[in-house]
Amino acid sequence: MKVLSLVAAAALPLLASAHFTLDYPYTRGFDEDLEPQFCGGFNTPSSSRTPYPLSGSAPLLIDSHHPTADVAVLISFDQNPTNFSAFNQTSEGQGYGLLKPFGRINGQGEFCFNVDIASLGINGLQNGSVATIQVEFNGGDGALFQCSDIVLVSNYSAPSNITCSNATSSASASSGPSQTASGSMGNPSQTGSPNSGAGRVVVGAVVGAVAAAAGVALAL
Ligand SMILES: [Cu+2]
């Protein structure tokens, strides 16, 4: 008994300090001590970029180690963005907004967001254009960052094991205590996106995630 409780006590600070991870598209690098820094402290683009849909709904997965957090997704179309201003204006001077506005997530574990890069209306994007996604996450201990370097590909779909729809199906509830939500609570820009069909899917997924979370709580 005593040994078990010691193990449990030791595990808590580890979980708290892990903050969050960016699991897809793949992170540039993760060091929990550097995570408060721009791009999580990794200042060089990955040598191999993750292929990512040029247009259409695309999944973005994080793993949260905080009970609640505010999450936003930024994107830069520079080859090597070095500051935040590269995440709201192209090198040609076109301004744009967040890829996903700030929204609150509740519960620890995996969360999936649907994003659509084409919805930003960036001029000149094409097959092979590069971009860097930066996730900003605040679980109460300050703003944290993770970056992923991607290459935009026409008619590309993420690997089938990395989709928000799969993760929000009832089958995912049996995979363990981690839960999955699509989009974010109270995310007004999603409903205003040109693709209203995707907006409806997001709303349904949030409801499903809440139901899944409730099921997990009952099971525990
Ligand atoms: Cu943290």
Protein model, in words:
There is one protein chain. The chain is α+β, with helices and mostly antiparallel strands and 220 residues long. The protein has a single domain, classed as Sandwich (Immunoglobulin-like). The chain is built from four helices and eight strands. The chain has helices spanning 2-17, 164-167, 188-191, 196-219; strands at 20-24, 50-53, 58-64, 68-76, 100-106, 109-115, 130-138, 143-153. The strands form two sheets. Strands 2-8-7-4-5 form a five-stranded mixed beta sheet, with no helix packed on it. A hairpin with a 4-residue loop joins strand 7 (130-138) and strand 8. Residues 1-16 and 166-220 have low confidence and may be disordered. Copper (II) ion binds next to loops. Keywords: Cell membrane, Glycoprotein, GPI-anchor, Lipoprotein, Membrane, Signal. It is a lipid-anchor; GPI-anchor. Its main location: membrane. Residues 185-196 have a biased composition (Polar residues). It comes from Rhodotorula toruloides (Yeast).
Outline the secondary-structure elements:
Blueprint lengths: L1 H16 L2 E5 L25 E4 L4 E7 L3 E9 L23 E7 L2 E7 L14 E9 L4 E11 L10 H4 L20 H4 L4 H24 L1
Summarize the structure.
This protein is α+β, with helices and mostly antiparallel strands and 220 residues long. It contains 4 helices and 8 strands; from the N terminus they run αββββββββααα. Copper (II) ion is lined by residues 19, 66, 139, 141.
